[in-house]
Specification:
InterPro entries: AAA+_ATPase, AAA_lid_fung, ATPase_AAA_core, DUF7025, P-loop_NTPase. This is AAA+ ATPase domain-containing protein. It is a single chain. With 712 residues, the chain is an alpha+beta fold. It has 4 domains: 150 residues, no CATH class; 180 residues, no CATH class; 151 residues, P-loop containing nucleotide triphosphate hydrolases (Rossmann fold); 83 residues, Helicase, Ruva Protein, domain 3 (Orthogonal Bundle), CATH 1.10.8.60. The chain is built from 19 helices and 23 strands. The strands form 5 sheets. A 6-stranded mixed β-sheet has the order 3-2-1-4-5-6. A 5-stranded antiparallel β-sheet has the order 11-10-9-8-13, with no helix packed on it. A hairpin with a 2-residue loop joins strand 9 and strand 10. The chain is elongated and about 105 Å long. The N and C termini lie far apart (89 Å).
């Protein structure tokens, strides 16, 4: 029942006769001119009359009764279901019922409902309103909240106008529909004149009150809101709304739909998900754009917003599947709610995200409506849903959750399609409804996150990385050839199936001589992701190591990533009779390395301590020696060129820098420190900044060596 519309026109009846509350409209009994259906009898002519009654509590009879509105005496018979000709309201199209408070002296206001007795109006409702929570168009009696008609009033008016514009060619049924809809609109315009005037005045200035909020909440319209994760604008399609209580205050709960990836058994597809947005109670008049969600027609630049979101939707579709990208921005951890600042390479992979984060509440698909069985379906035709996308890849659901959080759900359909991996063609209206986030893994932070799609960019590959690698030409060519051959998946299998498909490269030598950079340069050269792990991240027990390696190697295989395990000495050391746990860890490591199918780099410092079983599993071992002065010149030149200050530093100055006995990592740190030093002094970077930085590093190194000598 409608409780907030207090502008109902009282005194619409001037006497208490049976027809005193009737609004009449002349009948139009036109013959059908367009119908191709041969009817045995003419369609029933609607009764174009409206009745208004009060539903009140009789203190004398201790029961609820009906009477003509504003009448204090005449009591109406109580209508019952399926009364046929005995129905006291059978001669009316619309009955407006005002329910009076049981206690007239209380603070309660009357509530209203509309009872439809006209099937032509019901037909209009099915065409225009289609669905409304808690309403069945087959109900008898069909009791409706007037708020529903006021919400759809513009659409009902358009429906009437469309019929009116082609009145001369209408069939008999459509003529009756037109007359009946005119009756309903006439009644609403009279009874809710003040309310409709208020709504028009508010919305024409892009303003609204909470009591009139329903006027802009038209189902199947597009709403603008902010993504709870990224804070950027996004769109939803409003499906329905309902009034709820949030503590002591009323609130409006919107059920909306958007387009996202949904799970279907072990696969994924594009589908519709449902999200609930809560509009809290507010006082007075507010700008519609200040609401947490509002119709897109009130956006200051709807056309530009749609263009932006259309391009975002196309980008979202392009990121379905597995993609190596780079990211610069804030990403969200769903479980902790923490924000992470990420700048570096990421892997976009929703399937792996779901697999490794089973507790994540991912979007639930709206249950598909199976198509009716028809000749085209039997012939193998492609059925289409109401969204214009074929049924195997698109669906709807009824589960709900608050914005940003999604309820779990299942798609109630079992299929064995061959085209599960196909991406359906989405319309522009679907594309603007796509998600604002993608699910992926930060390769630098090693954490699964929700990434803002606007911040996801193509990888800017470092094409000079391999050229800057300081290695003898022969060994550099060997490394390039091996990696490129494996990258092209030139197959060689072991006698045991599944073994021997990997490429294991050991890089050994002292710190700071280019071992890690070699793996990084290789990944840049073949344009593959690089998954870097420290030895300490693999665990300290055999069981932990087993689980970690299995997970990482599975991920790397799917992503076709290069794996770098830094400081792997502890897992490769010679086994002994006294440390069973470490022996088990070495055995686990050997087994996983042997069956890994990708490229694996291992960096170590002590080649002498290797277990003999592991030596036979290394395809190539590269020894990195201490940097010579010539090598240091190459490293200095590469880093200085990267700073784009090569004109400020002469070749002789680079030679002077190369005389200093520092390794590659120290050179990188020195360049970074010198750059920061120059920025802090608002000076262009020069030789003096590098010298000052190296002097500080050497001073620290001497003090450190002195402390070690004292301790001994």
């Amino acid at each position: 029942m409608h409780r907030r519309l207090s502008a109902f026109v009282k005194g619409s009846a001037r006497n208490h006769d049976d027809d005193s509350d009737v609004v009449g409209i002349s009948d139009h009994d036109s013959e059908s001119k367009a119908s191709t259906v041969v009817r045995a009898e003419p369609l029933p002519v609607p009764s174009l009359k409206v009745k208004r009654v009060d539903y009140y509590y009789s203190r004398w009879g201790k029961t609820w009764k009906y009477r003509n509105m504003n009448s204090k005496i005449t009591v109406e018979p109580t209508p019952t279901v399926n009364t046929g000709n005995n129905d006291p309201w059978k001669d009316y199209s619309v009955v407006i019922v005002r329910k009076l408070p049981k206690n007239p002296e209380g603070n309660q206001e009357p509530t209203f409902k509309i009872i439809l007795k006209n099937n032509y109006i019901v037909k209009m409702c099915k065409d225009v309103i289609q669905k409304w929570p808690g309403v069945s168009w087959n109900a008898e009696p069909l009791e409706l909240d007037p708020e529903m008609f006021l919400t759809f009033l513009p659409q009902i008016t358009d429906y009437r106008d469309a019929l009116q514009n082609k009145k001369e060619t209408l069939g008999q049924e459509d003529v009756h529909v037109l007359d009946s809809v005119n009756l309903l609109l006439s009644s609403l315009s009279v009874d809710y004149r003040a309310t409709l005037s208020t709504i028009h005045h508010l919305t024409s200035h892009s303003e609204i009150t909470f009591d009139h909020l329903y006027a802009i909440l038209v189902p199947r319209t597009i709403f603008v809101t902010q993504c709870a994760i990224t804070g950027i604008p996004r769109l939803f399609e409003l499906i329905s709304f309902q009034w709820v209580m949030l503590g002591a205050n009323p609130a409006c709960q919107l059920s909306c739909e958007s387009v996202d990836m949904v799970d279907r058994g072990t696969s994924q597809t594009i589908g519709r998900i449902q999200t609930t947005i809560l509009l809290r109670h507010f006082k007075g008049t507010v700008n519609i754009q200040s609401l947490d969600a509002y119709p897109i027609k009130y956006h200051p630049d709807e056309k530009k917003l749609r263009e932006i979101l259309l391009q975002r939707g196309k980008k979202w579709v392009s990121l379905i599947g597995i993609h190596h990208r780079q990211y610069d921005g804030v990403a969200a951890d769903h479980f902790s709610g923490m924000k992470h600042s990420v700048k570096g390479r990421i892997m976009v992979d929703r399937a792996m995200f779901r697999k490794l984060n089973p507790g994540y509440r991912s979007p639930a698909a709206v249950p598909r409506k199976l198509p009716k069985r028809n000749s085209s379906a039997r012939r193998g035709g492609t059925p289409h849903s109401v969204y214009g996308v074929h049924i195997p890849n698109f669906g709807r659901s009824s589960s709900s959750s608050f914005i940003g959080n999604y309820a779990n759900g299942v798609i109630v359909e079992s299929r064995n399609d061959d085209d599960d991996d196909e991406i359906p063609d989405l319309s522009d209206e679907d594309l603007v409804l796509t998600a604002t986030i993608v699910y992926g893994f930060s390769l630098s932070d090693k954490v699964w996150l929700e990434f803002n799609i606007d911040k996801v960019q193509d990888v800017d590959w470092n094409v000079d990385a391999f050229a800057n690698l300081v290695l003898p030409a022969g060994r550099k060519n060997l490394l390039r050839s091996l990696v490129e051959a494996h990258h092209q998946e030139v197959g060689f299998d072991d006698f045991i199936k599944g073994k021997g498909h990997g490429l294991v490269i050991n890089l050994f030598g002292p710190p700071g001589v280019g071992k890690t950079f070699s793996a990084e340069a290789t990944s840049e050269h073949v344009r593959r992701p690089l998954y870097v792990l420290g030895g300490g991240e693999l665990g300290t027990r055999a069981s932990e190591l087993d689980a970690t390696l299995e997970r990482i190697f599975d991920i790397a295989t799917v992503w076709k990533a290069i794996v770098l395990i830094d400081e792997a000495d502890v897992f490769l050391e010679q086994r002994s009779m006294h440390d069973l746990e470490r022996n088990a860890m070495v055995a686990v490591f050997l087994r996983h390395v042997e069956y890994y199918r990708g490229i694996l780099f291992l960096t170590t410092n002590r080649i002498q301590a290797f277990d003999e079983a592991f030596l036979s599993r290394i395809h190539v071992a590269l020894h990195f020696r201490e940097l010579t002065q010539e090598s240091r010149e190459q490293v200095w030149t590469a880093f200085i060129n990267k700073l784009a200050v090569s004109k400020e530093i002469t070749a002789q100055q680079i030679k002077d820098l190369a005389v200093r006995d520092v390794n590659g990592r120290q050179i990188k740190n020195a360049v970074r420190t010198a750059h920061s030093l120059a920025l802090s002094r608002s000076q262009p970077i020069g030789f003096s900044h590098f010298s000052e930085t190296l002097d500080a590093m050497e001073e620290f190194t001497k003090e450190f060596q002195g402390l070690k000598t004292v301790e001994k």
